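Recall the central idea of this unit: under ordinary conditions, the amino acid sequence of a chain determines the structure it adopts. In this exercise we apply that idea directly, starting from the sequence alone.
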Amino acid sequence: MGLISVTTVTITTRPAGPADALLIHQVYTRTPEYFSVISIPTPTLAEVERELEAAAGDPFRRTELVLAEDGDCRAHGILDPVSGRHAIGYLDYKLDYPEAGDATVNLLLILRSLQSRGYGRRCIQDLEARLRGRSKRVLASIYGQNPRAQRFWCSLGYCFAIDAQPILDWYAKALL
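Accordingly, the structure predicted from this sequence is:
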């Protein structure tokens, strides 16, 4: 489990599996703008269940709930019955992809009502800290035309790395 504290807010993550499909689906339905940007409908609960089952069967893939417990998170987050904290987002990444020693973030989604408050930044900083010594670089995949995501990753020191057009760009950062 990842943990990072900044002033009064503590961000944690916990592994997410098929039993968390409803909670993750709620994160998706509370953030429909993301799916509009990448030009797909918000996944159904059944699609989320299938995706989590596929992830559980992949030894390199990690899916995590992003949890926090400050006042904003209690007001806007979704109570996680497992941890007793509030889910504010979802993180999906893969180890040793596309090459050994790489880690690729497929999705970091923070609830729309909590975006631009530093939660995503703290989550990625925590992930980088957990991966240091295990991965040599982290890549972030950006789907569709998403300048906001590009600005986010660039602000964390990621640089354009791979053009997989027409719908995907990858940004990368070396872990030292």
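The chain has a mean pLDDT of 92.
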